[in-house]
Amino acid sequence: MSETGSLFDDHVDPDESPAAGDGAPLAERMRPRRLEDYLGQEEVLGPGSALRDLIEGDRLSSMILWGPPGCGKTTLARILAGRTGLEFIAFSAVLSGVREVRAVVAEARARRRVSGRGTLLFVDEIHRFNKAQQDAFLPHVEDGTIVLVGATTENPSFELNPALLSRSRVVVLRALDRDSLLAIARGALEDRERSGLPTGIALDDEALEVVVDGAGGDARAMFNRLEALVLREASRGGLGRSRIDAARARESLADPRLRYDKSGEEHFNVMSAFHKSLRGGDVQAGLYWLARMLEGGEDRAWVARRLVRFASEDVGLADPQALPLALAASAAWERLGSPEGELALAQAAAYLATAPKSNAIYRAFDAAREAVRSGELHDVPMHLRNASTGLMRSLGYGRDYRYPHDFDEAIADQGYLPAALADARFYEPSPFGHEKEIARRMSWWDEVRERLRGGKRDGTLRDPRAGERGEEGKP
How far apart are CA 177 and CA 218, in angstroms? Predict the structure, then answer.
């Protein structure tokens, strides 16, 4: 290791797996090291498949691995690097950015120049990079400095830059079928030295099926269930004499705390399911996922914050009462604690699930913020500036400002945005809930302003106090 250190000092050797006793999860200890041991994706990796031919011909190119959690994306990337002799470098798009990409590329270029060895850069959750960040890979993929292997659970057509997609092969991986998961589970039970599972505890075939059937095609979830079941049986004193049957497996795995890792991936998966159920208007699912989190020991304050966030992000002005109610539920939980305060969280969840939905404010504020970040930093128009001193007034601050309350319908003929953004439309209300009323008001104000601008273009001066008020249609 050099004195300055290297981004690659802690690179992962794709041919190595953590030792059984080092505290790594069972899924990591049992990660396949060879292509021949990689089960469940025969459609894309079986003999005679296009990808298999590329691997065996050592003609590996950049690719995007698209598939659900636990289908083997990371494992396949490791195997590809080991099979083709490439240096394996991994980082997550959640934790890294363009600066880290540049550092990877610089050392990959140096490695190729010094040793002739190429680099496989594995980017987990590559969809988390925005389109501009994804552009950073393009020249280095094109000139062969790196072989990029990205992993995503999202549709690449929507989440990835078309330029990056055009330079990459998309490999679609499926959730693992029952037979593949059963074979993988049996491998862990047969190789106790590698898996680290306690010896002397056996599972009936029916019990193993219970483990597999509850994993939803996710090998990682299956390993978590298997490990939890065996370790629980060992804690009951079953070492050396226990054989777990289907009934015992169901009873043990019914404890939600065995299936909810509040500091790991399951924490995010269940919260994601909760949020999406509320967004989809499914109050039954929303209450189920809420119960999963609370029974699994999730931080109640964190759940309360998510409800408040949801009220603004997904309900917004379609129901202006959603945010106050979510805040009230949060305050109620803080006042009452558990278990009494949890009912307030359930009440808020049910209300939010059944409320009309709109992300118009969320999108509008994102658009306004993007305008600022992209350089739309224009001076405040003179008539809107604060004229708090004589000098400011002499310089024209506040000059020609028209006080709306002095005019008919409390609307003055003046702009409030910089001239360069005069036609900007950040917020467009949805047709749902209260936003229908907001849309009607905005339309009315637009009509009045257009009428005022038309009058000015015609050269007619308006008396602020003159004319009919025209109550019809007024907000």
Answer: 9
